[in-house]
Amino acid sequence: MPHERLSPRQYLILGSVAICAPLGDTFLSRGMTRIPPISLGHPASLLAAVFTPWIAVGIALLIGFFASYLTALSWADLTFVLPATAFGNVIVALLSHYWLHESISIERWCGISLITVGVGFVAHGPSLTERPALATKQDREQEQMR
Amino acid sequence: MTIPFAPAHLEPWSATAMIAAVVLCSTAGEVLTAAAMKSIGDLDEIRAHSGLKGAIRAVLTCPLFFAGVSFLALAFFSLLFALNHLNLSLVAPASASLTLVTNAIAGKLFLQEDVDRRRWTAAVLVCIGVYLLAH
């Protein structure tokens, strides 16, 4: 099945990857900065952090990200999916600046802009490498049923 | 010596090591996961034929998927550790951007993806972007 042009549903899945990942990261950051510094000598405290509210919501958002990410990887190249979702960096910058009140210099804004331009380059190309049809697990199961 | 994006109490190498750990674990995890999803096939088609349960079963019965998830879990805990010491506006874009470059290389080497001039240009732009982020 050719994947030169993505369907609206596939764009929606990529959008979901781009939004859920930065939102999840922001929740994690909010949660991790509210607890005392963790040292490598006490790894159990890192596990305990998982059950605090901010981090739990962050993890829920990252699960949503992962489901969308897996779906995207099933019909597009890894080198297409990752850049196409890098727009999330811009969302992270906006969230960390306006919500977490972190300062972002002009150089960092320029860096984020370049990353976004790079994403634009990839997004205009084909989503999947054309190659001779490989037998997927689904194909093999259908073959066995015949 | 200090690096601009790391808090003063941190050694310069420790901030670099934290980000490197996230990047390396992410790359291994994403390449293994991508290989798993390609071997399974289009999830939308599987769901159309076998329903959501069929799609979930197809993913959960693939051993390569669990190898990928293990590395992604390592990357996640590396990220939590890094966020405990560094700013989100550095860790998230830097690790995501560097992972993009390492994935372009790994995608070409291990997944035989067509990483053409367009995709390499994107990788170079991202490298410059990362430099500016850390400047």
What share of the residues of chain B lie within helices?
A: over 70%
- Terminal residue distance of chain B: 15 Å
The greatest inter-chain interface is formed by: A-B, 63 and 59 residues
Sum up the overall morphology of chain A in one term.
flat
How far apart lie the N and C ends of chain A?
Answer: 21 Å
Percent of sequence in beta strands of chain B: under 5%
Mean pLDDT of chain B: 82
State Rg of chain B.
Answer: 18 Å
Count of helices of chain A?
7
Strand content of chain A: under 5%
Number of domains of chain A: 1
Largest sheet descriptor of chain B: none
Number of domains of chain B: 1
Helix content of chain A: 55-70%
Q: Helix count of chain B?
A: 5
Largest sheet of chain A: none
Compute the gyration radius of chain A: what is it?
A: 19 Å
According to DSSP, the number of beta strands of chain B is: 0
Q: What does the oligomeric state look like here? A: heterodimer
Descriptive overview:
The complex is a heterodimer of chains A (146) and B (135). With 146 residues, chain A is mostly helical. Chain A has one domain. Helices cover 68% and strands 0% of the residues of chain A. In chain A, helix 1 (8-33) runs parallel beside helix 5 (88-98). Chain A is flat and about 60 Å long. Chain B is an all-alpha fold and 135 residues long. Chain B has one domain. Chain B is 82% helix and 0% strand. Chain B is built from five helices and no strands. Chain B has helices at 12-40, 43-60, 63-85, 88-110, 117-134. The interface between A and B is large, with 63 and 59 residues.
